[in-house]
Design a protein that fits this description.
This is Extracellular solute-binding protein. By secondary structure, the chain is of the alpha+beta class. 40% of the residues lie in helices and 13% in strands. It is built from 17 helices and 9 strands.
Length: 439
C-alpha cells in the first residue's frame, strides 16, 4: 500500500468542530479504480460561480468523446463543506470530486476521504508553481488534488494619495513601517492600513512569506511551528506598528473599513490577487485610483510572496471511477479552454501558470483600468509563491488566531503572546486527538 507512512501519521479523529470520526488508515484510497471503461457519470461538489457552464464544455467535448459525464452540485465553501464531505464519506456516499481549499486537504486526507491520484496525473506538476503544487502533495510523493486557483499576495495602494503625500511604494517591510509613520506625520487622521484579526489567512500568508512552516512532520510525529522565529518576526512587526499607532487596529470587511477605503482614510491594503473584486464593492468611488505592487520583502534581496486563499479539485476515495475523475480534474485545471471559462464564469485566478498569461488576462480588472500590466505583474509575482505547510487542525489554529489576535489588536497588547497561544492551543488539540507531537 503506497504512502502508508503519511496516512498513518495523519489518520486521526478530526477536531470536534468538524464533527467527524476517524476512519481506518488503509481505506479505499489505495485500491484500484473500477469501472472506467464505458459510460461514466461523475458528481462534483463545487462553490465556484458558473462552474456548471465550465463543466458543460467538458460534457459537450472531451467528456462526450471519453464517455465521462460530470454533474455539478453547488455547495457552500469553508468548514461547512469539509464537514459535509466527511459526513458523506462516513456513509460511503461522498461525491466523486470535491473542490477543497488547500488548508483543508490534510483534514480530508487524514480521514481517508481523498484518493492518491499520482498515477493518473503524471506530467501535470510542471504546469504549476512549485509552491502551489506542494500544497496538494502534503510533502509526500502522493498527489491528493489538482490546484485550481491561487491567491498570491500583493500590495495595493492609492496611487493618487501616495503622490499627494509624497510617499514612495515600499519594497521592504522596513520601508513599509517608515511609510506608515511618515503618513501619520503628514496626515494624522489617515492610516496606511490596518491590522485585521478577522481573517486568519492574511497572517498565515504573511508568515509563509517570512519562511514559516506551521505544520511539519518529524518521523511519525507532528511538529507545530506556529511560534517559530519567522512567525514571531511577523507578529512583532505588526504588533509594534499597532502599539505605536502607526497603523489602525480595526478589522476588515466591516462598514467602517469599507468607508475608510472609500474615503481615503486608509490608503493601502496588503491583500491577494483577488483584491479588485473586494475593492469594487468596498470602495466603489475610488475606481481607477489604486495600483498594485509586489509585497514588501524582509530583505531587499528577497523575491517571495505568500498565499492567501486558493483551492483545488480532489477525487474522493468513495469514487468508483478514480481514473475518469482524475482525467476531468486535470482537464478542468490545465486545459486552455477550461481555464479561460473558469476565469470568465467563475472570476478565479487560475493556478496553472500558462493560464495566468493567457488572453483571458490580457486586460486588467476594470477597477484597475489605470494599470494595464496588472495581470502581467501578477503572473510574475505568482511564480514566487513560497511553499506552505498545513496540518490536520488548521481550524483550531485559525479560531485561536481570531480570538487571541483579535484581543491583542483591540487592546494594543503583545502579539507575541497571542502567537504563543496559537501554538499552545494547536499542540493541545493534536495531543487530545491522540497524535504524537514533537517538541
Amino acid at each position: 500500500m503506497p504512502h502508508t507512512k503519511l496516512r498513518r501519521l495523519v489518520t486521526i479523529s478530526v477536531a470536534v468542530t468538524l464533527g467527524a470520526t476517524a476512519l481506518a488508515a488503509c481505506g479505499s484510497s489505495d485500491d484500484d479504480s473500477e469501472g472506467d471503461s464505458g459510460p461514466v457519470s461523475l458528481t462534483y461538489w463545487s462553490w465556484t460561480p458558473g462552474m456548471d457552464k465550465v463543466v458543460d464544455l467538458w460534457n459537450d467535448g472531451q467528456g462526450k468523446k471519453d464517455q465521462i459525464k460530470v454533474t455539478v452540485k453547488k455547495q457552500a465553501s469553508g468548514d461547512a463543506l469539509v464537514t459535509k464531505i466527511l459526513t458523506a464519506h462516513k456513509a460511503k456516499k461522498a461525491p466523486d470530486l470535491v473542490q477543497a481549499e488547500y488548508q483543508a486537504l490534510p483534514t480530508l486526507v487524514s480521514n481517508d476521504a481523498l484518493a492518491d491520484i499520482a498515477d493518473d496525473v503524471d506530467g501535470v506538476q510542471d504546469k504549476f508553481a512549485e509552491g502551489v503544487w506542494q500544497q496538494t502533495t502534503l510533502g509526500s510523493d502522493a498527489v491528493y488534488a489538482i490546484p485550481q486557483d491561487s491567491g498570491p499576495m500583493m500590495f495595493y495602494y492609492r496611487q493618487d494619495l501616495f503622490k499627494k503625500y509624497g510617499l514612495e511604494v515600499p519594497t521592504t517591510w522596513e520601508e513599509f513601517a517608515e511609510t506608515a509613520r511618515a503618513l501619520k506625520k503628514k496626515a494624522p487622521g489617515t492610516d496606511l492600513t490596518t491590522f485585521s484579526a478577522n481573517d486568519s489567512g492574511l497572517f498565515a500568508g504573511l508568515a509563509q512569506q517570512a519562511g514559516a512552516k506551521w505544520w511539519t512532520t518529524e518521523g511519525d510525529k507532528w511538529k507545530v511551528g506556529i511560534d517559530d522565529a519567522a512567525s514571531r518576526k511577523v507578529a512583532d512587526f505588526w504588533g509594534g506598528l499597532v502599539k505605536e499607532g502607526a497603523i489602525d487596529n480595526q478589522p476588515m470587511y466591516t462598514p467602517a473599513w469599507n468607508k475608510a477605503l472609500n474615503t481615503g482614510k486608509q490608503i493601502a491594503w496588503v491583500s491577494a490577487v483577488w483584491a479588485p473584486g473586494t475593492l469594487t464593492t468596498a470602495a466603489p468611488d475610488t475606481k481607477g485610483k489604486w495600483a498594485m505592487a509586489p509585497l514588501p520583502q524582509w530583505s531587499a534581496s528577497d523575491d517571495v510572496t505568500g498565499s492567501w486563499g486558493g483551492s483545488s479539485t480532489a477525487v474522493t476515495t468513495d469514487s468508483g471511477h478514480r481514473s475518469a475523475a482524475a482525467k476531468f480534474a486535470t482537464w478542468l485545471n490545465t486545459d486552455p479552454e477550461a481555464l479561460t471559462a473558469l476565469a470568465k464564469e467563475g472570476g478565479i485566478y487560475p493556478a496553472a501558470t500558462t493560464a495566468q498569461t493567457s488572453d483571458a488576462f490580457a486586460e486588467p480588472p476594470a477597477y484597475f483600468s489605470n494599470q494595464p500590466d496588472f495581470y502581467t505583474r501578477a503572473a510574475d509575482i505568482a511564480k514566487t509563491t513560497a511553499p506552505s505547510a498545513w496540518g490536520p487542525n488548521v481550524n483550531v489554529a485559525y479560531t485561536t488566531f481570531n480570538d487571541a489576535f483579535g484581543k491583542a489588536a483591540k487592546n494594543k497588547s503583545d502579539f507575541g503572546a497571542a502567537l504563543a497561544q496559537m501554538q499552545d492551543d494547536t499542540v493541545a488539540d493534536l495531543e487530545k486527538q491522540g497524535f504524537e507531537v514533537a517538541e
